[in-house]
Design goal:
With 51 residues, the protein is α+β, with helices and mostly antiparallel strands. A hairpin with a 5-residue loop joins β1 and β2. The longest helix is centred in the last third of the chain and has 10 residues.
Length: 51
Amino acid sequence: MAKKVVATLKTATGRDFTKVISVVRSAKTGAYTFKEEMMPTERAQELIKKR
């Protein structure tokens, strides 16, 4: 499943955050849903490389 970087936010502390949207398929119904998550840019890059 692909991850898509939508927006990058910068805080006063100098840490960059990225909004990551991933597609998740329900095991029960088989329907697709979207999961949005805010995480540090470094962690988002690690997740993208892992997939």
